[in-house]
Design brief:
Layout: H1 12-16, H2 42-70, H3 75-84, H4 88-104, H5 113-135, H6 153-177, H7 186-198, H8 202-209, H9 212-218, H10 227-238, H11 241-256, H12 258-264, H13 270-286, H14 291-308, H15 315-332, H16 335-349
Helix pairs in contact: 2-4, 2-5, 2-6, 4-5, 5-6, 6-7, 7-11, 7-14, 8-11, 11-12, 12-13, 13-16, 14-15
């Protein structure tokens, strides 16, 4: 899954951005890049770098739009955001090229897919640091505390928008250049769907959540519910877009940062986090990411993208496909695992 670039002190990441250990990139003092030296597979790598920079700068524009439109900011805050994003695309590009030049200078690098995926992680790290730097002086509503994560709205925005951006960049590089990160677990696909949905407009979020009650009714013999759970779903469906987006973000955090979210979330949410984590671990432990399931999951991804792009107006088809795929797989899992999953789910809906 795409996330913050990680590695030990000898990794490519720290060779390229060594001061990341101190969690700092000096954005103001980045040097002007010159021509990058030629290396192995130059054409492929140059294309990769160009596509990466293009799609990342596109995402920086998307982040700006999302911050201004999706978080109910005050007019003064929106004006500050507009000002804060001045030159951010140029600064990101400058830093990436400068770091790349430093790394390649006088060295022979074997350009592999793994190398390029590592460099994409570095680029994503620079994107996040640039974003943090440019919004650090924006105050107003951005400093308000959020309800479920004990962080400021600014921290929530950065978390959500970097997730959205990293996911989009990773998918674009995979689709465009076939340089793809392996997906070993069901949760890898689920995380992709969640982050894709988090980028939806308020209108499209409402369209997505609207049919959930109907889907639950259609599959009531497979997805057990109770009155309390259905009331919670109804609340989310009728709530503002920010609640819907936070719901997706919450599930994403349980999948990708379970220890952190368990530490920071209010006590009332800790049982939900623990049980959801157990549920996803059980599923990931037995879900076979074989050729047939990969084809099905990738088809679901394509259907979701088509729906978002307006090529199809039936989100029911996407949701039904997700449920049907899970039903088929659950049937072939060991009985003890099935029982554990049903038990954990019954505990979740009883909260």
């Amino acid at each position: 899954m795409c996330g913050d670039a990680k590695g030990d002190a000898d990794s490519f990441f720290y060779q390229l951005v060594p001061n990341a250990v101190e969690d700092a990139i000096n954005i103001e003092n980045a040097t002007e890049p010159e021509d990058i030296p030629q290396s192995n597979d130059t054409i492929l790598f140059d294309t990769f770098v160009n596509v990466l920079i293009e799609v990342t700068t596109e995402q920086l524009r998307n982040v700006k739009f999302n911050i201004m439109n999706n978080y109910d900011l005050y007019e003064a805050d929106i004006a500050d955001i507009k000002k804060a994003f001045t030159n951010i695309e140029d600064k990101y590009t400058e830093i990436v090229n400068s770091k790349l030049k430093t790394m390649l200078e006088g060295k022979s690098i074997n350009i592999t897919d793994h190398f390029m995926l590592d460099f994409m992680d570095v680029s994503n790290y620079i994107l996040e640091r640039a974003l943090r730097y440019h919004v650090k002086n924006v105050k107003g509503k951005m400093l308000a505390q959020t309800k479920w994560y004990r962080q400021t709205l600014k921290e929530k925005i950065i978390r959500q928008q970097t997730k959205i951006s990293f996911n989009y960049i990773e998918n674009n590089i995979c689709d465009t250049l076939q340089i793809c990160r392996d997906r070993y677990y069901y949760s890898d696909y689920l995380t992709d769907w969640l982050r894709t949905l988090m980028n939806l407009s308020s209108r499209d979020l409402k369209r997505f959540f609207g049919p959930v009650t109907e889907i639950l009714e259609t599959h009531k013999h497979f997805i057990k519910t109770n009155i309390k759970f259905r009331q919670t779903i109804k609340y989310i469906i009728n709530a503002e877009a920010i609640v819907k987006r936070d719901t997706l973000d919450f599930v994403d955090e349980v999948l990708t940062n379970p220890d952190k979210v368990l530490k920071l979330a209010p006590n009332a949410l800790k049982p939900s986090i623990t049980l959801l984590r157990e549920l996803f671990n059980l599923i990931d432990g037995v879900y076979d990411v074989n050729d047939h399931n990969i084809e099905t999951l990738e088809n679901i991804t394509e259907m979701l993208r088509d729906w978002i792009e307006g090529k199809t107006f039936d989100i029911h088809k996407v949701l039904n496909a997700i449920v049907e795929n899970m039903k088929i797989n659950v049937k072939i899992w060991p009985l003890d695992i099935q029982n554990k999953i049903y038990y954990v789910w019954s505990e979740i809906i009883a909260l």
